[in-house]
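Notebook entry, structure prediction.
Reason for the run: the old model in the group folder had no record of what sequence produced it. Starting over properly, with the input documented here first.
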Amino acid sequence: MKVLLLSDVECPALWDYYRPERLGGADLIISCGDLKREYLEFLVTMSNKPVFYVPGNHDSRYTVNPPEGCECLDDTVMVYRGIRFIGFGGCKRYSQETYQYTEEEMEKRIRRARRQIRRHRGIDVVVTHAAPTGCGDRADPAHQGFNCFLKLMEKYSPSYLVHGHVHMNYDSDIPRVMTYGQTTVINAYERYFLEIPEPV
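New structure, fully documented this time:
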């Protein structure tokens, strides 16, 4: 299954200069946050493919006007074509804005989701806005990652964790793809295509 990952910056090729072939034959579109509602609504309409999303720390408007036609993954397990997805939006708390969490608050969200994960016998893809600690995050308070995402990967060994929040143009040494244990960690900044093997 081909997945189009998006985050943080609206891609002109997919909006201002849209052509169907620029979707790359994606079967599913996933937003890791901080994208305009109108952008996601445009993509779900033009592609006629499902769009899953988690909110970023700048998506407070989603609380009033969430992207229509799109599915929110936040704290929820969804299965698409046999692949199990779960999402945890938001970032490390550095102000009083919506969708910001302390380490303890994010850890509590993950604990609450454990029953869903057990019911689905695990997870394949974790979708977050913030990065895990030490896996593409930054030292400044606004872009520090979550330790509990590391524990999540250690406990359930998902195939992928995809995140946003850390813009690739912040620095030249920001990795697009990393590995933590058995999990491939991907920064979805702007757009990235991911091929996920479907279950037999």
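Summary: DSSP finds three helices and 13 strands in the chain.
The old model has been moved to the deprecated folder.
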